[in-house]
């Protein structure tokens, strides 16, 4: 059987990383130019190096920015499964160049990197003040916050993007910038403007987020703005034109925000584009379950969430969201400030590594770099830290059999859907108890793969599909390695074709390896249909 190598008597999560990892990563090359029957080169290299059980389960997302455009090939080699383009920053030409490079890597070099774009959403923030990139607010200095636009920057003046931003605000309220980067006390109201005194000095950046607090509580206000602005719709159209795989919707308030966008995409036959809800406001937390149910996945945007929620509550909120997403079978990304110090420094703090490991311990589907890769000085090193930390934590979780503590909740009501759930739950239990090397699943649209992933099995899940969009959408499922392969309704044909593909990848499958196989009997059903004829088989490779 294929197993990961051990070093001495140390548990695998304490084994020092191989000194040759970086050299090996740079030697990764595509072994096939065929789209059908392709395995992405990162998974192929991991499998050859570590065996099935050593393959990383947690997916890695990198935000693409000026710091890493030239480093995209290295990030892809380093394990980036999703490239996130934040449409709040940069221009169309730059966004297009980044997406074009990702597509080139997929088509020419054998990677399988999905494209995600973020909408900006409606939020209260500092408008671009036209002056320096940052302005220091000193202790006790007085500032004017105004929505009135001027031709040039004025000293001690910050421009706010909403005309009625001061409605309901009282003298004595606190104005918090970017979750605490600087704090002001409101000393005077002048029409719609606010005169404020700096209580905690700090940097004021263009597009910094603003929130108001009274007696230690956030002042909740609804400006009556839609979740999707005119700019957001233009950004979505741009993303569609560029062939994105998923859209991260910012400042979601309730399930209707998701449903409206899904309806729009459905009318244009673009259901393959997945919608991820960014949880970053108190309003979203109040409607959390319905938002998760309506979406295709969730991003825990801890940075913006920390502006509206006391910081000490963020860890518990994160864990609750991750658990609820797994129970509802929706992939979840933990994002924001995972390795924030690596924006400037080549090594993370110990607390940051512990934060990454905690997200992995919670079985989040994916973890994400934001500023660390977008504008940081060490994007490749930051990704390497994510990869190493996740591999070590997964190894510990597997050795301690932490999967047994995961609660299981029935999702489905209709009998065919309940059968699918039970088939996948039983398959994972069998795979763990029999210590099989790998799980194969044949799926048109990825649903069976997601149900297997939900149970967090010890072996990796190789999901074979003949649908390119389904392959990309499975990039964010925990433990799933998506492969494109022609499928038939014959289990034997599918298994033999899969084994033939795996053997062609440097002998990654060997005689004696055990494979647990899950499949629908009819792979030609329409999307959303569920077969009541499904099977589990355990096969040995000869």
TrEMBL record:
Polar residues: compositionally biased ranges: 1-10
Gene3D superfamilies found in the cross-reference section: Phosphoenolpyruvate-binding domains, PK beta-barrel domain-like, Pyruvate kinase, C-terminal domain
Ranges where the record places region Disordered: 1-24
Superkingdom per UniProt: Eukaryota
Enzyme class: transferase
GO cellular component: chloroplast stroma
Keyword list, A-Z: ATP-binding, Glycolysis, Kinase, Magnesium, Metal-binding, Nucleotide-binding, Pyruvate, Transferase
EC annotation from Swiss-Prot or TrEMBL: 2.7.1.40
Transmembrane stretches, start-end: none
One term of GO molecular function: kinase activity
Domain Pyruvate kinase barrel stretches: 55-382
Pfam family for this entry, one: PK
Reactions the enzyme catalyzes: pyruvate + ATP = phosphoenolpyruvate + ADP + H(+)
SUPFAM superfamilies: Phosphoenolpyruvate/pyruvate domain, PK beta-barrel domain-like, PK C-terminal domain-like
Family of this protein: Belongs to the pyruvate kinase family.
Protein name: Pyruvate kinase
């Amino acid at each position: 059987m294929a197993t990961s190598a051990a070093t001495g008597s140390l548990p695998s999560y304490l084994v020092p990383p191989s000194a040759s990892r970086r050299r090996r990563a740079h030697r990764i090359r595509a072994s096939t130019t065929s789209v059908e029957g392709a395995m992405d080169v990162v998974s192929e290299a991991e499998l050859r190096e570590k065996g099935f059980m050593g393959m990383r389960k947690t997916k890695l997302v990198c935000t693409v920015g000026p710091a890493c455009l030239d480093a995209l090939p290295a990030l892809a080699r380093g394990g980036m499964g999703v490239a996130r383009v934040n449409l709040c920053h940069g221009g169309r030409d730059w966004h297009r160049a980044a997406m074009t490079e990702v597509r080139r890597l997929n088509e020419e070099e054998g990677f399988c990197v999905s494209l995600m774009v973020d909408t900006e959403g409606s939020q209260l923030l500092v408008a671009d003040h036209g002056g320096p990139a940052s302005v220091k607010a000193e202790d006790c200095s007085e500032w004017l916050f105004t929505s009135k636009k001027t031709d040039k920057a004025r000293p001690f003046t910050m421009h706010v993007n909403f005309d009625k931003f001061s409605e309901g605000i009282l003298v004595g309220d606190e104005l918090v910038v970017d979750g605490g980067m600087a704090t002001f006390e409101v000393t005077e109201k002048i029409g719609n403007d606010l005169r404020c005194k700096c209580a905690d000095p700090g940097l004021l950046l263009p597009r910094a987020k603003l929130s108001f607090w009274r007696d230690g509580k956030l002042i909740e206000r609804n400006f009556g703005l839609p979740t999707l602005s005119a700019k957001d719709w233009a950004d979505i159209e741009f993303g569609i034109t560029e062939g994105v795989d998923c859209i991260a919707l910012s400042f979601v308030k309730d399930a209707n925000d998701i449903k409206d966008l899904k309806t729009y995409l459905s009318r244009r036959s673009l259901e393959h584009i997945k919608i991820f809800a960014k949880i970053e406001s108190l309003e979203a937390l109040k409607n959390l379950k319905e938002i998760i149910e309506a979406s295709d996945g969730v991003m825990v945007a801890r940075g913006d969430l920390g502006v509206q929620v006391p910081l000490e509550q963020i860890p518990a909120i994160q864990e609750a969201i991750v658990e609820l997403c797994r129970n509802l079978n929706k992939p979840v990304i933990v994002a924001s400030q995972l390795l924030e110090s690596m924006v400037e420094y080549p090594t993370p703090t110990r607390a940051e590594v512990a934060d990454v490991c905690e997200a992995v311990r919670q079985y989040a589907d994916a973890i994400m770099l934001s500023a660390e890769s977008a504008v940081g000085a060490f994007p490749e090193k930051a990704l390497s830290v994510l990869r190493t930390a996740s591999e070590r934590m997964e190894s510990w979780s597997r050795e301690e059999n932490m999967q047994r503590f995961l609660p299981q909740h029935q999702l489905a009501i209709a009998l065919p859907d309940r059968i699918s759930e039970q088939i996948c739950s039983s398959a994972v239990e069998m795979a763990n108890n029999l210590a099989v090397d790998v799980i194969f699943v044949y799926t048109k649209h990825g649903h069976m793969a997601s149900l297997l992933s939900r149970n967090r099995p010890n072996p990796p899940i190789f999901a074979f599909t003949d649908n390119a969009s389904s392959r990309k959408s499975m990039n964010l499922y925990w433990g799933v390695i998506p492969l494109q392969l022609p499928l038939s309704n014959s289990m034997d044909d599918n298994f033999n074709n899969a084994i033939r593909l795996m053997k062609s990848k440097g002998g990654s499958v060997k005689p004696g390896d055990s494979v647990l196989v899950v499949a629908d009997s009819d792979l030609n059903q329409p999307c959303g249909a569920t077969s009541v004829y499904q099977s589990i088989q355990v096969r040995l490779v000869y």
